[in-house]
Amino acid sequence: MPMDPRQTLKSLFDAALAAVSAAHVLPAHLPPPPKGRTAVLGFGKAAAEMARVFEEHWPGPLEGFAVTRYGHGAPCRTIEVLEAGHPVPDEAAVAAADRALALASGLGADDLMVCLASGGGSALLAKPAPGIRLEDKQALTRSLLACGAAIDEINCVRKHLSAIKGGRLAAEAAPARVVTLAISDVPGDDPATIASGPTVADPTVASDARAILARYGIGIGPSIAAALSAPADETPKTLSNARFEIVARARDALSAAARAVERAGFEATVLGDDLAGEAAELGAAHARLAVEIAEGGNRPVALLSGGETAVTLPRPGFGRGGRNTEYLLALAHGLAGAPGIWALACDTDGIDGTEDNAGALVAPDSLARAAAAGLDARAALAAHDSHGFFHVLGDLVVTGPTRTNVNDFRAILIGAGARQELPL
Which domains, from first to last, does the chain contain? Predict the structure, then answer.
């Protein structure tokens, strides 16, 4: 029977999520038990589910806790699950960091600390460096999120203003062995960038953080300036007790989606798992590519991509939406109603920006339906109101927390009308 492009796109997203779920990827990577204690520390949007799976498969006693975003918890038997603020840290995130450092400092040479890391851990495990107030860190975080900086730049600054990031947690745990199992949400899968690398030796220096702030014109107060100028506060550059392993990444999600869409008769093209830059610019570029492919022949093609784009706002709090809906709004505007082209873009954690949707869908009639409702895509882009645009159309994708996180998932189906249902 003829396919429903909407359901096909959602099925591709489901296949991508299943491939990077903790239940699917974590059991094969558990380290051997130690002679002494096993302390588990989870941090990030996938932390609670990773903790649940870990304790289900761990052969011996364990202790510890996991901190995740509000609403992203999962029931565990032994590991305590905490929740805190994201993307801006709050007092609960500071309390979690204090507990993490206390847990690490109490370990000995025969003990093992297992860190279950995932995206979002930078905000969820947050302890400002000495002399910096949480309010200062919160204001700076909002400015970094609004300025269009890449995630590695944001996390470079975070590491140099933290008492736990940039390898400091692993240093506190010595001489205990530290094994980090991570679900990567960063383009390039750099361990030092995932959750700001609390168990990874930091290759950056404070002057790098100062240069990033200067590049984006972000003003800082005296306490932050002092922290970025104190040689004694530099992050650890070597760690002899820590091992890091990535158990899932964007490439895994895209590969699963590619296999699924090829079974439906599409030619799958993966544009990259680490695409970055402005969300609207990427959406416009993908619209041009999709139209070019559509005009070049009748072969059905699926364009897949991952990574993390940015949205530069005129000020913190301006507009409403996330980078995936902003990408789709620019894509829809660029497609201008081209027939036979459908698209989905979602954040794999289930939350696009600070809203309650994972992303949205674009159909060939999106602009026509928008015009009938009194909406203009160009005006919505200028106002950064992508959430409002797709909400009115009824095209938001709402999944709730997925409890995994390999960042953005994007799929464009070209020539979808002639395909059959996706056999997942």
Answer: 5-17+251-418 (3.40.1480.10), 22-248 (3.40.50.10180)
